[in-house]
Amino acid sequence: MIECPSCGHLHRPGTLFCSECGVYLLTGGPLRTEPLPESDLPTTRADPWESGDKAGTGEAPHETMLIIVPPSGRQLTLPAEGEAVIGRLDATRGVFPNIDLTPEGGLEGGVSRRHARIHRQKSQYFIEDLGSANGTFLNGQRLTPYLPHPLHDNDELQLGRVRIQVSVR
Amino acid sequence: MATINPDIDLYAVLNVPFDATADEIRHAYRQLARQVHPDMQDTQGTAMLFRQVQEAYEILSDSNQRSAYDRQRVEAGLSPKSIFQWKMQPSRAALSVDVDEQIVYLLFDIAAGQSDQARGRQALNICLVLDRSTSMQGSRLEQTKASAQRMIDSLAADDALSIVTFSDKAEIVWPSQLLTDPIKTKAKVSAIQASGGTEILQGLMAGLTEIQKRRSQYAVNHLILLTDGQTYGDEDRCLSAAEEAAKQRIGISAMGIGEDWNDALLDAIASRCGGVSQYIASTGEIQHFLRERLQGLSTVYADNVRLLFKPIDGTRLKSAFKLSPYIERIPLEDETLLLGALQSDAAVSGIIELIVNAHDAGDHRLAQLELIGNIPSRQLDDALLRQDVTFTFDPSANPNTPAPSHILSALAKVTIFQMQEGALNALEKGDVAGATHRLETMATRLLDMGEHQLARAALLEAGRLARSGNLSPAGRKAIKYGTRSLILASPKER
Q: Of A27, B109, B229, B284, which one's alpha carbon is 20 to 30 angstroms from that of B59?
């Protein structure tokens, strides 16, 4: 049996929410994203002008985006809608990112609940930081929040301390 | 020969439509094989992708294997040719080994067969049963009459309509017939006057008799009850009448106006007959809901839709909830889950909670589900599809693997609905403190989810309950019908 961290009610393993008090049982309630020390993160900033439509002319309509999370080796394809929020699931707060980095140490790695967003415009993919606590880094350069940046094959993303490999094909 | 698993959409793997020709399949395969060949791109993912493409092509390029695979897809509700489109998704891909009893959730989604989704409307056989007790006097009755008249205007030539009013006894305002003279029917409605008490059973029985006169297997037979009051002493007989109606495939929808009607009774009547129940807070909404109901009925694709649960190795059902059109607990009688009617333009989805016994490592079939329904447009009774519930038990399965986000999002709302049920049940047993506590906890969760209005209503009622030992009739309905509708409004994210 597993015990609800909030009210102590006992549930069978695999239960996701406490029926007594509504708490999400896998994390036991909201956990704050702590700011990481500056020395843990790259300091260079990405050129904010390399954004917008400049690169949106690629000609392969069937390209798919694969996201690889090295700590667990997990591979994800971008959902068909062409948009995915990356972050840390918090069921109690109703935050359900498409790509949840909790299993890859998202909390300790300083990943925000809604950290960044990948979306597609025509055949070009973009990454956008959603005002995260610890920042989103594209090939080692910090992105200006809410400014979409084009993504290319073999780009490396870093959300807080968690690294992600991007592959477009 | 590769084993064929109908759950995997091999056409999607090759990125071709399900009716692609052999040439198209070969062409798609060659193109893909070049792109994902491990010699071209050397990552672990490519090798897996390559194997999938290879296996898909092996089956789809062999006409015998392809037709066997297609047949399995059709029978499982997974092909565009199936009579129902039926998807099921588990909360976890792999279960833990050596756990005595573990929980796993299954999300199901049932829609009309694709080729029939655009079909024309069904012939209707409708009876309106209207409360004309003294409390209806004024705007309630006037709005009800006006809405009934609008409804007469929107019926088609082959629809049958009857109208019954009730107070202490029932009167037939318009006996069941095709609408040849709408002006005459509307005039009869205009003449309805308010007086007397509220005896729902009287109205229900008279209405069912009218529907019987023109009941057809291939029409939508439905009774719509509108009331604003409590009925006394005949609740049990109302429920047996509803059960009898369900057996004859007559649906009942129930609409309660204002705050003084018996929500438990109307909900039970509607859920037994595959209809909907509706809380109408202000008289201005009567017309809207009546029109919406009529719209829903005229797009019915299948009725008496149900899931039969056939357990294997002691798997048990713990709970089941419908998620659309609103959250509703599905009773687990005889392991048959009644889902009511399925419209051609709206899917029915729900979530099932299973208790699974301990199993060794490997794949195990834990249950079989049968989806059954009547499809009037195809003149099919008890049309049936089957799917197996199979899970992999994996010694290295991580019990903390998060479930897919839409399953979690649905479960979060079902949990709130259960807390509301728990509060009302506690109150029924006289446990005021327990009910108050549950309402307060529920309000906290609602605040976390950004549902501020509903949270405030819950806190207000918790306060009232603590002081007076009672809920206000309006607050009780606001909470009950607010929590069940959470699924409709998407939560505001942070």
A: B109
